[in-house]
Every structure is written in C-alpha cells, then in structure tokens.
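For concreteness, we quote verbatim a single protein encoded this way:
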Amino acid sequence: MVRLIVLLISSCLIFGACKSKPKTTEAVPKTDQTETVGKTKSLDNADVNLIGFKDNKAVTASGRIVDIPGLTDEKQSTYFLVRHAEKTSEKPNPGLTDAGMARAAKLAALLDDLKIDQVMSTDYKRTQDTAAPLAKAKKLAIQSYDPGMQKDLFTDLSVFNKQNVLVVGHSNTIPKLANILIGKEVIAEYDHEDYSNLLIISISQPGVATYERFQF
C-alpha cells in the first residue's frame, strides 16, 4: 500500500513537471521574437521587387505601394542610387554584358514615368552604359563625377530643392554616398555579384533624409 501511494505521488509529480514545460516556452513572447526578426530580416523578394511608379509612389511586385516623400513634397529632392549593371570580364575598363544592358534598359523603363532632372555617373564605361538608356530617354547629358569627391559634391547638390537625380556608381561608392545623404551609417557595401539594388532617398536638407531599398 505504501509503495502504491509512493508511485501515485511520483506519477503526479512527473505529470506536473511535464505540464509545466510548455508554460516556460510560452513565457517568451512570440510576438517580440517575430518583431525582432522582422526588423533585421529582408522582405520577401516580391515585396521589394520594384515594377514601376503610380502617382509618384513606388509599386512592388506584391502590390505594395510605397510613398516616396521626395516625389510629392516640393521641398524635398529625390536621389535614385544604383550600382552599375553586370559587367564583362574585360580589363581595365569593362563594359556591360547582355544581362547588364538588359538591366540598364529595365532601370530606364522603371523611371520612365518620373521627372528626372539629372543623370550622374562615374567616368567608367560600365557606369556610363548603365546610365545611358535613361539619359537618352529623358534627353539629358550624363554628368560625370569623381567618386572620391562625392561627399562634397552631393552635399552641395542636396541643398537645391526639388530635383530628381539618378546616380550610378560602384559596389563600394554607392553605399557610402547613401550614408552621406541619409546622415548615418545604414547601408553596407554590396556583394560583388549584387547588381539589383536601387536605393531611393528623399532629402529635406543635407543629412536629413528618408530612404527605401528596392530590387530591380
């Protein structure tokens, strides 16, 4: 009888311990975990894959509509920052591959409905070729700039109100320029094989900006 009572008590204790384990798991707020991951995790491709603009707002493949303040606020400028498209293996000054030329044409088509005031590029064949389709469509001359001087150059340019500017650069210079315009370090250098990023930065004054990051 005593043994039976001991067994019953032991069973109850084991059962109680097993039931208490889920409570420990539930004590960690699932919503907090999800929100933390969401803040650092990239959005689904369809949610950042830019397909065009409607009423000066960006439209993604998922149907997401993104407000771009610089396109609707007369006191803000908008900068479209891209790395050059896919390049050939030629040296020392390679041009674009067929895929790169297609990407450059796609960029021009994406921005076709917008007013573009300036097209700027570093003085290399791959960057100039990336900028060329949009410049031709907008009947604008490509303005060459020195990436080593971009901090001074674009700080001066961003003082002017209401201009929409395409800037073509490189995997290390475009993120640096983005951080200059945004006013803090938020964009890391691109991977060597990453050609798809399009940063759109709205500037109210130098160092005061909002930005969106898309793929194209």
Notes: The chain is about 40% helix and 25% strand. Residues 1-43 have pLDDT under 50 and may be disordered. The first strand starts at residue 50 and ends at 54. Residues 64 and 97 are 31 Å apart (CA to CA).
